[in-house]
Design brief:
The complex is a heterodimer of chains A (84) and B (406). Chain A has 84 residues and is mainly α. Chain A contains three helices and no strands. Chain B is 36% helix and 20% strand. Classes of the chains: A mainly alpha (84), B alpha/beta (406). Chains A and B meet through helix 2 of A and loops of B.
């Protein structure tokens, strides 16, 4: 899966399902402060990521994730790991 | 003691999704009953049900406020928007004043079953999402509506089987009457999905008159063969009279009596004595004689036993004065946890517009119903005092007396 494809899937579910303001979507947007994603939203994002990417997000792997770009990096690395 | 009035109502049901639509259906004697083909495939004995489409709330209500709403909560939200609008209650009022919520609900089967299906398949509860818990609890309606509308007063769900909505209004009335609250949102909600009624269908309590769905629900008729499940939600704004006057609210009706009882017998067995005690208490609480009642909205669900015991009790109390009686369940089906609230709402619409809605499909009386003055057609009639009955499994009984505001 290409990086662009991952970004598109993430953007789509953030806008369509989590109902994040589309104009706020940017690689350096902070998940909490800029995209207003709260802890309950994140419970739903875990479900969506499992559905769309086939792996389960682990909280301990997310400690360094602050921006949307970080989040896509994390997904990309997990998708690659899954293929190895 | 304070006086308690109703200043707003909202409805989402199989006979209409607004007060105006429902009023027309009641006047016309229009049935909301149909067939759900999925029920037959799912192993139901009866595919008959009130046909209610859930409202579409995406784009209407913020996601965070929406994800915790189960189907019955969506109905209740839609009904409450109309009720608050009718009452002239807006966000600014609720920001500045304490309002409570007492709402009837007794299941959230779809949410529970769907969550369980996910866990069975995935073996992982973290894949349930954030809404499952808030959708699954019996108090799902009150926990969500109190959050959505920012209610800060009394906040709880009344679970009392098919009398839930009626007891919710009765308790709201008591809270206001005793000066504990000035305004309480009351009501009842009932899910209508495939999962919600399987266990009730298991008792062979539902009509199987599938050839003519609109004629399946026939309370008091000798040819009745069971109830038709239905649902939606009804919301009523109960308010202390002086408070309503101070804010210039339009008063629709006054709640003047609440009576309750429990049969203390077998779990599904109705009782004429239990019905009569609840009705007598409501009349005594209102300080009115049975002969003063102009209209009775009967609980009668179209089951052989239930209708018979209620007819016996009605004849004992009202045999001399013979007020007009109808069961609006003949049109709506049995709205279960919602019914006690919706039927007060239907009755107030009749009171406001001076008519009695018909008990459709009452074609042939039995030995008990022949003693009652059942409205078979829409009757133009001024209603000053009405009584609404609601009874439920476990022998819970509730009766409310409502008075017209002159």
């Amino acid at each position: 899966m290409k990086r662009e494809e991952i970004e598109n899937i993430v953007k789509t579910f953030l806008v369509e399902e989590i109902e994040v303001d589309e104009t706020a979507i940017a690689p350096d947007a902070r998940l909490k402060e800029d995209l207003a994603i709260d802890s309950l939203d994140f419970v739903d994002i875990v479900v969506i990521v499992e559905r769309d990417f086939g792996f389960k997000i682990k909280a301990e792997e997310m400690t360094g994730v602050r921006t949307l770009g970080d989040f896509c990096d994390y997904i990309e690395s997990k998708v690659k790991q899954g293929k190895e | 003691m304070k006086r308690v009035v109703i200043t707003g109502m909202g409805i989402y049901s199989c006979i209409g999704k607004s007060l105006a639509e429902v009023r027309e259906s009641l006047r016309a004697g229009k049935s909301g009953i149909g067939i759900d083909p999925a029920r037959a495939a799912h192993g139901y004995r009866s595919p008959l049900t009130g046909i209610v489409e859930p409202p579409k709330l995406k784009g209407v209500l913020d996601r965070r406020l929406r994800v915790g709403l189960a189907e019955e909560g969506e109905y209740a939200y839609a009904a409450t928007v109309e009720a608050f609008r009718e009452a002239g209650i807006d966000a600014a009022y609720l920001e500045e004043n304490e309002a409570g919520i007492l709402y009837g609900n007794d299941s959230s089967a779809k949410a529970v079953i769907e969550a369980n299906n996910v866990v069975m398949e995935k073996k992982d509860t973290t894949l349930l999402g954030s809404g499952a818990i808030f959708q699954s609890m019996n108090s799902t309606v009150t926990m969500n509506l109190s959050t959505i509308f920012k209610l800060r007063g009394v906040n709880m769900t009344i679970s009392a089987a098919c009398a839930s909505g009626s007891h919710a209004i009765g308790l709201g009335y008591l809270f206001i009457r005793h000066g504990l609250q000035e305004l309480v949102l009351c009501g009842g909600a009932q899910e209508t999905n495939l999962y919600s009624m399987g266990s009730f269908d298991a008792l062979s309590a539902f009509s199987t008159r599938v050839d003519d769905p609109a004629r399946a629900s026939r309370p008091f008729d000798a040819g009745r063969d069971g109830l038709v499940p239905s649902g939606g939600a009804a919301s009523l704004v109960l308010e202390e009279y002086e408070h309503a006057r101070r804010r210039g609210a339009r008063v629709l009706a006054e709640v003047v009596g609440y009576g309750f009882s429990s049969n203390g017998k077998q779990i599904s067995q109705p009782s004429d004595e239990g019905c009569e005690i609840a009705m007598s208490r409501a009349l005594a609480d209102a300080g009115v004689a049975a002969s003063a009642i102009d209209y009775v909205n009967a609980h009668a669900t179209s089951t052989p036993q239930g209708d018979m015991f209620e007819a016996i009790a009605l004849d004992r109390l009202f045999g001399d004065s013979r007020p007009l009686i109808s069961s609006t369940k003949s049109m709506t089906g049995h709205e279960c946890w919602m019914a006690g609230a919706s039927e007060v709402l239907y009755s107030i619409l009749m009171m406001r517009d001076s008519f009695v809605a018909p008990n459709i499909n009452f074609e042939r009386p039995d030995d008990y119903s022949r003693k009652l003055n059942i409205a078979t057609e829409t009757v133009e009639k001024e209603i000053n005092l009405l009584l609404s009955n609601s009874f439920g499994f476990g022998g819970t009984n509730s009766a409310l007396v409502i008075r017209k505001i002159q």
